[in-house]
């Protein structure tokens, strides 16, 4: 696990947080998870659901603590809003985050620990978390899904470049029009692919792309890979983001969300990308400006966008990227 004590990257080794469980007082743990309904019953290993509760209810209660689980997280009358007031620990997931804003954190007078059951703590106002209650410890399970995300990136790239979804939908409608699909169908071989950030996920993406014989594998990151790793993968670092984007047929976003990356892919930056390129975002929804991505698809600046992250999450029904399509054809 990677711990962030407020803005720091690693909690002091001497910092110890305990829940209080006595005959007169129990600690309270609040889980904010998504509803799995019948699917959670069919697959008990869907731990991030309200039904399966990360598999921790028995353990929490055996320690003498109280566990409250909910998916209701929006608004001041939500269960999450009401229950966080006296919670000592709050656990949520990236898929259904309970947003810990300044207002909510200041209500949570007993809160000691905020945990992401996954990667990323951008749903927490870290500056406020560092100020109140003696400093709230913010933790995440670093590396927990890096393989899954890297594989998902490669799948999304192939889905976009091969124009798979329109082909599938055409067949599902009972139609057969090869030209309609083939006009936007390409090979990944010979294409230039670049990743924004080359951490645990970005590096794995590049490794998985190596067998596809891409023209070049590029990356933009303040910290370079070692020369040995670059040679092994066959990738090259580009020091300027705009310079990298101008060369890439495919760009995949694999950086964390923070003040410098929020809204990074806006109209201006997207205009620096190679016309007709594809953009993949499996990092965080707020890294892109959704309206600008939708407009870039409509104009043909982007040929396709593949994202499995949204802001807010879950995405509202009128979110522009639910309906955005490639415009010229």
Automatic annotation (TrEMBL):
InterPro entries: D-isomer_DH_CS (IPR029753), D-isomer_DH_CS1 (IPR029752), D-isomer_DH_NAD-bd (IPR006140), NAD(P)-bd_dom_sf (IPR036291). One of its GO terms (cellular component) is cytosol. GO terms for biological process: monocarboxylic acid metabolic process. Keywords: NAD, Oxidoreductase. The keyword NAD applies. Residues 155-322 form the D-isomer specific 2-hydroxyacid dehydrogenase NAD-binding domain. This is Formate dehydrogenase.
């Amino acid at each position: 696990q990677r711990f962030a004590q407020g803005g720091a990257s690693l909690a002091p080794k001497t910092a110890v947080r305990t829940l209080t469980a006595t005959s007169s007082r129990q600690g309270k743990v609040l889980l904010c998870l998504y509803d799995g309904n019948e699917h959670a019953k069919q697959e008990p290993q869907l731990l991030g659901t309200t039904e399966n509760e990360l598999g921790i209810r028995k353990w929490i209660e055996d320690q003498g603590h109280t566990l409250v689980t909910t998916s209701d997280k929006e608004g001041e009358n939500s269960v999450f809003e009401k229950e966080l007031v006296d919670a000592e620990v709050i656990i949520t997931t990236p898929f259904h985050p309970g947003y810990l804003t300044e207002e909510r954190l200041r209500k949570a007078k007993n809160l000691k620990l905020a945990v992401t059951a996954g990667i990323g703590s951008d749903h927490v106002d870290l500056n406020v978390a560092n100020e109140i209650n003696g400093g709230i410890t913010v933790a995440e399970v670093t590396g927990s899904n890096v393989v899954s995300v890297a594989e998902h990136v490669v799948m999304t790239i192939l889905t976009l470049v091969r124009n798979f979804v329109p082909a599938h939908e055409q067949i599902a409608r009972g139609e057969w029009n090869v030209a309609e699909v083939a006009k936007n169908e390409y090979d990944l071989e010979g294409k230039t692919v670049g990743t924004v950030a080359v951490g645990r996920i970005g590096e794995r993406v590049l490794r998985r792309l190596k067998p596809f014989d891409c023209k070049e594998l590029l990356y933009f990151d303040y910290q370079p890979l070692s020369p040995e790793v670059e040679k092994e993968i066959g990738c090259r670092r580009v020091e300027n983001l705009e310079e990298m984007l101008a060369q890439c047929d495919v760009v995949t976003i694999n950086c964390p969300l923070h003040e410098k990356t929020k809204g990074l892919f806006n109209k201006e930056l997207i205009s620096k990308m190679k016309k007709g390129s594809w953009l993949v975002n499996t990092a965080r929804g707020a890294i892109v400006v959704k309206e600008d991505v939708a407009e870039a698809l409509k104009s043909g600046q982007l040929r396709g966008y593949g994202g499995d992250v949204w802001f807010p999450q879950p995405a509202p029904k009128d979110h522009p990227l639910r309906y955005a399509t490639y415009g010229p054809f």
